[in-house]
Amino acid sequence: MRNLLFIGCLFFGCCSCATILNPRYKAMAIYTSGPSKIIIKKDTLYTEANEAHFLVPRSMDPLSLRVIADSSNQSLSIPAKSSFAYYLNIAYNYGLGMLVDQNNPKRYTYPRRIYMDTAVNGGFRYQPILGTQKGDFNVHLSMPFLSSFLQKPTQDGTKASIGFLGLAFGLDYYHQNDQYLKLGFSTVSDFFSPSPAPYYVEGGRDYLNSAFGYLSNHHRIKRLDWGYGLSLAENRWGVDNYIDDPDNNPPQGSKRKRSVSAGLMFSGHYFTGRNFHIGLQYCPSLWRLYENPGFRYEHVISLDLAWKIRL
After folding, report:
1. Which one is the CATH code of 137-310: 2.40.160.20, 2.60.40.10, 2.40.240.10, 3.90.550.10?
2. In the chain, count of helices (H) and strands (E)?
3. pTM across the whole model
């Protein structure tokens, strides 16, 4: 019985994720808008290139800092939060390790980085400001997750489909505060599954895809982003026929058709975080070029999962 109790205590101790994974001290950094002096308890640091790096012991108590610059003297209180390793106990040992980590200082953590404007009282944040000012550049990466297609290939009627998979990227340039131009490129398909995999459809299957470039103007208002512009799209339609019994079903040849059209682009997104945003992108093709030129309406509407990265 005593041996079982010892083994049980050893098991719970070894399964406490925060105790095992978190070091006793937390590495932090503070970035300021100008040369500053940082006071942490009894220690004094000076920024180099407007940044300072330091270690603090983990604790359930808030971390108190003083940041002294030429024109300001600010005190910060950074609250402690339960770390990711503490919640990892739920997946690793059904939460039993939380009993061991509950009163352990290693349970807690502080933000890895603090960004501070020393010219503004209380002007600090835990993430850098995403570029939204005149002259800023951002890289735009997105995954059009679900797309709806409407195409009109010559002499084959109207084709409509909904499917998955796509990739898009672009470059944003802020020509005014909270207003930018985007040069982008996107390619989308109507693949039947959210993840790529080999497939076979008895009798064959139509497929639609589109690749388009666009130049658009966007407005950023807090968490909302909406834009409009011009696009140039290459729309492709095809059909492949698979016949298991060629004696009873004479094989039919595959078809491939493509068209190039000029049109518009409209988008609306909502930022759920600093970088990530979700929204809709609507690209109508209006004027067909080259083959049978003239007005012909087609479109792609995509549910867009997107990220922005400041340059």
Report:
1. 2.40.160.20
2. 4, 18
3. 0.60
